[in-house]
Each structure stands twice: as C-alpha cells, then as structure tokens.
Amino acid sequence: MWLVGVVCAALCLSGSVLAETGIPKPFHRRDQVTMRILHNMARGSRLNHLNMECLISTNDYMVKYAQTAAEKCIRAVPNDTTYGVAYIRLPKDAAGVKEFTEKATEYDDLFYSPGEEEHCAADDRCQLHKQVFWHEAHEMGCGRAICGDETVVVCAYSYKHEPLSPPYLQFPGAQCLQCSEYKPSCNSYNLCCNDDSGYELIPTPSSEIAQCSQRPDKLNRLMRFWHQPTTKNMLLTDPTEIAMLSGQPGMTEYGPIGRVATMPTAKCPQLMPINRFYNEELNFNYYEIRSERMHALRGYKNIGIIGYAVKGENICEADVPVYVFNSPKGPIHLQRGEEATKLLRSGGTYNYTWAGIAFWIWK
Fold first, then answer.
1. How many CA atoms lie within 13 Å of 14's alpha carbon, on the beta-carbon side?
2. For residue 143, what are the β-bridge partners?
3. CA-to-CA separations, 137 to 4, 56, 133, 168, 175, in angstroms, rounded
C-alpha cells in the first residue's frame, strides 16, 4: 500500500507539472510592434548576409497562438504547428521585449557557422537563434506568461526553420545579393524587403504623442470585390457602387476587409487620402496614399479618394494591413489571410509578386 501511495503521489505530481498553467501577461500592441522592430534590427545586424528578409507586420492569429503556448509554460518547441516557434524563459521580473532578441543575437554569435549544417537537437539556445534569424520572414506575433518564478515569452512566425539548414547565408560583400523575387532589395535595416516596407521607429509611450495619434471616430467599411472574367480587383466605400456590383455575374464579394477613416481629423494628423487610380486600357485599379509613388503610375487616371489611412501599423491604432501584389496584367490589393499567404508562398508561381503594404486601416 505504501508503494502504491508513493507511485500515485509521483503520478499526481507529474500530472501537475505537465498541466502547468501560467498567469497571462500578454504584450500590449505597442510592445508587439517594438518586438518586431527589434527583430528587424537584430536580423539586419548580421552583416554580409545574402538572403535575410524583413518582418512586415504583427499577425493576430500568431499572437493568439503564442499567448496560448506561453500560458502552457512550454519547455520545448511544439512540433504540431505550421508556424515557426521560438521561446525563452527569463527571470520573473523580466519584461521580455528586449531580452528576446538580445539572447537570440548572443546565441547566433555562439552557434552560427557560415555554410555549415546546424542540428540544434534539444538545445533551446540554438533553437532560439535559428528561428529568430531564419532567412524567410513575413509576419510574427508574441505571447507572455508568468510560470512560477519565470517569465515565458513565445513568438510565432510565418516560416518554420529547417532542422539541418543554416538560418541564413553569409559571404563578404554580398549583403542582400540573393533576395527573393517578392522581397528584392535591401531596406534601411539592410534586409531583403520591398522599398522600405518593414522599416519603422520604435513606438514611444509619450502621452503627448498618444493624444494626437488616436483612432479616428468616423470609420467606413472598405469592401473588396473581384471580377473573375476581367481579373479586376476593386476596393470600395461608396454604398451606391457597392450596391451596383453586388450580385453581378462573375463578381465575388469578399466583404469588408477593414475600415477606413471618412475624413481628416485632428485626432490622427497622420491620416493620408487613399487615391483610387484607374487604367482604362488594362481595366485595373490601383490604390495609393504615398504621393511620392503616384508619379510612377503612368497610364492611370486619379478618379477620387475612397477614404483615409496611415502608413504604418499602430499609427492611430491602425491594425489591419492592405497588401499589394504586382503582376504583368496589373496590381491586386487584398486583405491579410489565406489568399495573401498563398500568393506569398507561391514565389511568383501565379505571376503575382509581393510589392509591400499599401497602407494600414482599422478593424
């Protein structure tokens, strides 16, 4: 009986360890943006890399996944997910925002050997460096929880590192030499990107800036339509146009992909008009907020403003990116989701190449 009691006690203790549950301490949106920027800064610090890509936005699904994993107090990288996953265990009083990339950089210096196979096995330090510095990158999201006397931080990524491959390629004088087709050139962080997508300043907690960078009060739904016979893509806010297109033969209504501001407001001085350009010969629409890019739209006519948006995530609390892909026929603007992921991972198979984020709007 005594032996049975000991076994039962051991099993109960083992079960409690397996079922360890942390106290949620999720990151604020500003911290998510800061962590992504710190990732880009750390990745760009790897001089002479050939193919390291920029991270361009925070993905809410990845945030949710990472938060759940953190609250489970994980002690190993899960193998049942398509996300790339990295985690770190820190002292209880650590915030984990800066420490995550600081440790990853430290371990990258320790483990990375150019051109050699890397097999991390069960080494958490090696796993952290390899995932954070994996050359393919697009979106990410992080979670945090208190587990006993430790803080556990978990981050999820669009791409999962390959067990035996080096995280990136490095060669003297070869910075960004082998960038992919959809992130073809070096940005300000020295990362393969498109224009300066992925380049941002770390958000400041200044109350003065917060007061003049608030979410606009008046928002309007931004509807997306796709006409398959002509491969024409449309973003609309006008109720009359929306009513005319709904139900037309060959027309797919993707519903609201987010909301745009209806007019400028002092609450968000960073608002910029979304200009709608139309090319009659190609029968294509293009949507742009950056005036410096508009001069390149030869053959397109500006036919009006459909709403107002901002350049970057978290500006005036904007949290929804509108992607743009280019093709020989013309551009396509679409929401984050399966369709965008399919095009991103196709590497140009569908004749669409990643061209960055056109602008940011609101849920």
1. 6
2. 154
3. 52, 8, 9, 11, 17
User: Are residues 229 and 185 both part of a single domain?
Assistant: no
Report the candidate in 150, 144, 162, 136 with the shortest Cα–Cα distance to residue 66: 144
What pairing do the DSSP bridges indicate for beta strands 57-58 and 139-147? parallel
> 21: which DSSP letter?
-
CA angle 9, 14, 18 (to 5 degrees): 150
Q: What is the CATH number of the domain that holds 100?
A: 3.40.33.10
Q: Classify each residue of 28-64 as buried b or exposed e, where b means 16 or more C-beta atoms within 10 Å of its C-beta.
A: eebbbbbbbbbbbebbbebeebbbbbbbbbbbeebbe
Instruction: Map residue 196 onto helix, strand or coil.
Output: coil
What whole-number distance in Å separates Cα of residue 135 and Cα of residue 28?
27
Whose CA is closest to 277, among 304, 237, 251?
304
| Residue 71: CA count within 13 A, CB half-sphere | 11
- Asked if residue 272 lies in contact with residue 308, where contact means CB atoms within 8 angstroms, the answer is yes
Q: Is residue 210 part of a domain?
A: no
Q: Is position 209 within any domain?
A: no
For residues 186 and 224, membership in a common domain is answered with no
pTM of the model: 0.63
Assign 255 a pLDDT band (cuts: 50, 70, 90). confident
pLDDT at 189: 83
Torsions phi, psi of 349, nearest 5?
-55, -35
Query: Which of the two residues, 124 and 161, has the higher pLDDT score?
Result: 161
340 is a domain residue? yes
Do 188 and 223 belong to one domain? Answer: no
Tokens 């849920």 correspond to what residue?
A: 363
Rg, Å, the chain Cα set: 23
- Tell me whether strands 139-147 and 150-157 are parallel, antiparallel or unpaired: antiparallel
Nearest alpha-carbon partner for 246 in 218, 268, 226:
226
- Residue 2: is its pLDDT beyond 80? no
Higher-confidence residue of 202 and 244: namely 244
Domain housing 92: 23-193
